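Memo to structure team: turn this sequence into structure tokens by end of day. - J.P.
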Amino acid sequence: MFPLFRKEITGFFSSLTGYIVMIVFLLANSLLMWVMPGQWNLLDSGYAGLDTLFVLSPWLFLFLVPAVTMRLWSEERRSGTIELLWSRPVGDGRIIYGKFLASVALVLISLLPATLFVISVWVLGETPGNLDRGGTAGSFTGLLLLAAVYSAIGLFASSLTENQVVAFILAALLSFIMFTGFDSLSLLPGFSSAGEQVARIGINEHYKSISRGVLDIRDIAYFIFVTVLFNEAARISLRRSTIKRPLLIIAATAAVCLLASLLHLRVDLTEDRRFTLAEPTRKILKELDKEVKIDIYLDGEMPVGFRKLRRSAAQYLDEFRIASGRRISYDFINPSASSDAATRERLHGELINSGLVPVNVMASDGEGGRTQKRIFPSLTVASGETVIPVNFLRNNPSLPAEVNLLHSTEGLEYEIIRAVATATADTVHRIAFIEGHGELDEISVADLTLELAKFYNIDRGVIAGKPGIIDNYAAVIIAAPKERFDEKDKFIIDQYIMNGGRVMWLAEEVAVNADSLTSGATVALYQPLSFSDMLFRYGARINPVIIQDADCMLIPLKITNPGGETQYVPAPWVYYPLLRPSQSHPITRNLNRVKAEFAGTLDTVGRDPAVRKSILLTTSGETRIVTPPALISLEEAGEKMPPEMFTAGEKSVAVLLEGTFSSVFENRMTESIMGEEGREPITRSKPTRMIIIADGDIIRNDVSWSGGAPEPLTLGLDRYTMQIFGNKDFLVNCINYLVEDNGLTEMRAREIKPRLLNQSRIRSQRLLWQLFNTILPVLLIIMAGVAYNRLKRRHYKRVK
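Reply from structure team:
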């Protein structure tokens, strides 16, 4: 095999055609990746990765590989040397696979200058070297396997004809059909029931996984089988008298590959293990017994970052589809595809009414310009009659766009699997808002209620001293009570907790009438909580104070200028702090700041080792404590407060308690409270959770009365700046964490390392790197060719 291998390599580099083919291939890659503007331009993408290379290469290989293989058998046929080959004391297989290895080697040699692309991305990283080495190595493995299959197809095409041009066209056509033809075929109406199986016959279905750095034994077995299949088909075409042996080899290879694919071995080579699904996800998908359809509306013309987010969504959904045994299917839909403006607006309106939230971005208009477009970074999960809307964009205004998109990618698995679990669940958890103690009314918590109703059944009601009335609820919410809880209600809530119930408490010990501020001032008064003894026993204490924070919201302040004209100017209002979510807990990771109003503080108390305490929300480090009674005047907003006043440091506002809790009614005569029902109270709880928040306004949405009827506004919306803070996301995460025992919320702690390019370096050295990656690969090929031919002439001179 080796002399034949060397002969083919030498023959390729002895002609000008070989160099032209390699140069054209490299130039096409270089120009698309480094020079030409558009979605493939690596410098414009902002990300330190070679995804573009691995997406483009299968298509560019359709030109390169047929050009390499077209002469391997056609030339032998045309010149009549093929009979000479068969007369040599070498087996057919050695001749066939000698040429095959030569063609693969030539393709790999053509790829060698692309290592300059790796070097460039390595150097241009925001942190040099932040390229995902494992994922890149896995992706290059995918290119190697793709080159092997294309080479085998090219050899088969070359074996059918003496004409090299015909061999080239046949190879390109067969490779195209094998790569994407079956995908197109699977979309035809006649194949709707077997579309998945039809698509799996094609190369693309198997290359997609490997190209992102995930090696699956089933994909590798597919590539090996198809490679052997076409090589043996070439043998049958060339040696029609020897059919039995090739068929036996094909059958044996098929059997071995089939057995290997049963092992279900899968290795994620990416450094972040980003395509390794979490154990709760795999468990849910493995137990899935219903068909699930996912429609993703992030499609069409959009900025590079959103295209990358779209690609990440597709990659995750591929993993979901495989792990679910193909019970999950998905489609990308462009809601702006219609050329008719009225049709687009109608569809956009339907999507918005269904709960999907669009964003406006600047994108190409297809004619070289840029225009504002509306896109939907959203999806719907449908199973039967149940449809769950999911908005997966994390849009924190305080973070750069690239970081927000990265955080969105980190949360994709959690957002999708939570919707899948909800859509396919046989039972739906119930959540209750407690009433009867002056809690916030229904319209004041309507926005959160509507959001929770996508996943849970929501009820409201009074306890009224009825034992067991809340026992069937997965969690209860106590939202800003203003009146006392009697001992019966406290006992019922306590025993609910002892039985493993979950509670979210939102309360404060200082009452402020914010409506009175419209007249210029109000008074903060101490209002003790009737259930503070319960919270203290469980492990936390809400303090009777109000926090002032230098990191706060702006409010419009009415002022009069020297000319007597009235105007409104934004002024910091230190009583409305912007709370900082903890980045170390899955509930609060990657959330926007949470707005609070006249918030209190809390402390953790007790040393019970059975209770674990996690701080969820804190103030900034520049704070000041106000104790009641206190006069609060709008004039304070117009006064410049010196930094020396804000020295109280960082304060906690929300805490998660987990573990087993002691009953507040332990060692108490509960029969006098509940009669016979209180004879034997439970004094130690089952493992459970609760969340305590020292501000009832965090859960309250503003209400608009502009239309006559009350209309709840978005929770967390600042009506003056129109910025949406993280209140709703925070509270939804809190409820999910309290209710779920399947570990899904823990996935929000997943972290993907940001791999960004150094934009300042790109701006100053853009032309240098474009020349480096465009001219240098070509120069390397030319220099290698000159050196090779000189060595060849020197060798022949010595022989003579």
